[in-house]
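[audit] Reproducing an earlier prediction to check determinism. Same input, same settings, fresh worker. If the tokens differ from the archived copy the diff job will pick it up downstream; this log only records the rerun itself.
[audit] input (177 residues):
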Amino acid sequence: NTKSLVAGVGLKKQQEPELVNGILERIQAISDEARRALLDPELERSELLKALESLIDENHAHLVTLGVSHPALEKIREVTAERGLHAKLTGAGGGGCAVVLLPDAIDDKSLNELIQALEKEGFEAYTTSVGGGGLGILSPYVERSNEDKVVAEEDFVAKPAVELAQWAADRGRWLYT
């Protein structure tokens, strides 16, 4: 449970304050770098995903050192790593939940195989997509004409909700606030 995991980290911090404080500082640096990468309008999508994969792996390793992982979470990482994917625990840890970063181009067959492999190990998979925190702004770093802006607004209003994610991706780089 969360209370015992937090207590375990607190005890570890009392016993090894330099180690734990260093890990917490590195975890904060990872969060800061992820935020910077996500907000960088000049970072290519492929480079962004590579950076996030690396940050996910590094963050999870620190959480393991803090003692908040669980064999179930490590099994999820094993199953996903076999497919070249990157996962980390989320929440307080302890085996409750993990997130897996899926590539943009993952096909339905590969996704279904991943879900089946996780279910075979006794896990339940939930698929979701991540949007922006509030307002999405089309990047000013991509050349656009005023005519294109008018068409974009008309297209947006006319698109069915199920087509908006692809429409947004086709428009170019977005910044989120």
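[audit] rerun output stored. Observation attached for the diff report: The radius of gyration is 20 Å.
[audit] end
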